[in-house]
Amino acid sequence: MKVAITSEGKTPDAALDPRFGRCKYFLIFDSESGDFESLENSNAQSSGGAGVRAGQMMVSKGVSVVLTGSVGPNASNVLQSAGIKVYTGISGVVSEALRRFRAGEIREISA
Questions:
Q1: Is the pLDDT of residue 111 over 60?
Q2: 12, 21, 35, 59 — which has fewest CB within 10 A?
């Protein structure tokens, strides 16, 4: 399973970016290999549609779960229609957010 976490930096010790569509980076954790992939969010500076394009990027990367502070309705529709589970209201450090997710301490949004 691949878990994407919005991040302000390129490493797991970076702060979680509270924005989905306009986050600086996505850190994608692969639970099978235990590896992180750092992806710069090329949509962050878009004048519009950043969330939708970021959602499409997650679909193309085979992500199953997104951890973030907040996600807009259009991006949420893209993610949920692709079967990607979205968890919001998350803050702190990327590695800690991943630990909390794996421990079942974070709840998925329903709509």
A1: no
A2: 35
